Amino acid sequence: MLTLTDIERKEYSNIWVVAEVSSGAVQPVTHELIGAARELADARKSEVWTVAMGSDISSDAKSLFAYGADKVIVVDDARLDGIQDEVEAKALVRLINKYKPEVVLCAATVKGRALIPRVAVMANCGLTADCTGLSIDPENGDLLQTRPAFGGNILATIRCSNHRPQMATVRPRVMKAPEPDRGRQGEIISECILDTDADKVKKIIEIFHSSEATLNLSDARIIIAGGRGMKGPEGFELLKKFASRVGGAVGASRAAVDAGWIPYTHQIGQTGQTVQTTLYIACGISGQIQHLVGMQSCDVIVAIDKVPDTPMMQMADIAIVGDLFEIVPEILNELPKL
Ligand SMILES: Cc1cc2nc3c(=O)[nH]c(=O)nc-3n(C[C@H](O)[C@H](O)[C@H](O)COP(=O)(O)OP(=O)(O)OC[C@H]3O[C@@H](n4cnc5c(N)ncnc54)[C@H](O)[C@@H]3O)c2cc1C
Fold first, then answer.
1. CATH: 3.40.50.1970, 1.10.540.10, 3.20.20.140, 3.40.50.1220. Which one for 212-334?
2. What confidence tens digit (pLDDT) does each residue in 274-310 have?
3. Is the C-beta atom of 166 inside 6 A of ligand 1?
4. Does domain 6-200 have CATH number 3.20.20.80?
């Protein structure tokens, strides 16, 4: 087995975040990753660097200092317009070889999932996808990457002790973004795309977004979610009414999605979306680990179930025991008419 000597290990320093850039703007998941990177860097007494690659990205890149970045490497090039994962991967590997980061974090988005595995292969290091927790060994810099394993039945903590850099992806809304400090300053490092990086520039003709529900779910501050306890598609009509009264979105467990009561775009959990809302109301969802990993970071969790000791009821801040088909209409009656 290849092992890393202490001397080789010391060549690598700082925690990097690959900024999620879309339509010339840095996306909020970048702030969440910088918040996590800041904690890791503080533990290692090192710095947070962010790599922002895109077309016309320079001015937006400066905003990243407010969230905790110390340095931002900006690669601003018109050839990076659209999704250019092959070009970005080559450029990123060059930067990794030049600056030698200890850790590289990337968002587990459509774009990040296309980009970072290429980088991991080219940089000859491991990659832990969809982490739900990150910490670091302050002595040797080993990244402790926690994620669900074995069908979500356990949470495994993974170390890649023998390779640097260590790479992990985190889904949007898993980590909390720090409050921005607008007065915070940092250093911009300008880098460029080489012609050898850009031999596979793609022309994106059109980008299709799936149904509005996907967007609504990740942006929602309130989610009313239903599970097998909703009994059928009619049950979800009740939840849609509830959600529209409180300005929220409708979520679902996999059981409800698999039954065909609501489309997959509403599914929350390990094989669905991760959400981080102010309020999450779970109706007839028992709260198996595969569901909980997708919503456990919500601020206030309310559970409605006829069984009092399900995992969801145990985890909830407010647990309402009873028949949801009586309780939900009662709540709707009590809500002020909008
Ligand atoms: C690899 C893998 C990935 C998975 N990914 C996901 C995922 O992403 N998301 C996900 O959700 N699941 C996922 N699952 C499935 C998960 O293990 C559970 O099977 C699923 O979450 C159960 O859904 P549920 O809570 O709606 O159903 P159940 O566990 O059947 O719970 C239904 C609840 O409704 C309550 N109830 C019934 N009727 C009423 C009523 N009238 N009033 C009040 N309460 C009532 C019951 O008491 C019960 O607690 C995955 C599983 C595997 C193996």
1. 3.40.50.1220
2. 898 999 999 999 999 999 989 998 999 999 999 999 9
3. no
4. no
